[in-house]
Here is the input.
Amino acid sequence: MTVLSPAYLFWPMFAHVLLVLVVFMLLSKQRVGAVRAGRAKVSQFKDNREEPVESLAAKNNIANQFEVPVLFHIACIQLQLFDAVTLPAAVLAWLFVISRYAHAAIHLTSNRVLFRRRAFIASLVFTVALWLLLAVRLAMG
Here is the structure.
């Protein structure tokens, strides 16, 4: 199988990082809005035990971006290090990113658990597939 430039996996990783940054900005905006509206106090963010309702989904989504996506980024880096960046790996990486954007969009809007779960499972499947590609590459030498 033809090995591609590591950039083919860098760009999906970068796209995911952009998603995380956007959700962080949204979280900050929602928290500031809650404080300004008097529905939250700055002090409650010190230990972060009590999240305002309007920013709870964004806070939870940020946590989600550091669960399965960590495995995605590690797989991409390993594929790059072992010179195993192939077209299937690049396609899986972009499918992962698309599923994470869908997951975040659902989580931050309607928050319909059935659809959010489907997007989550898709991202998990794409990540597992990336790890399997890596395992096959390493097994083949």
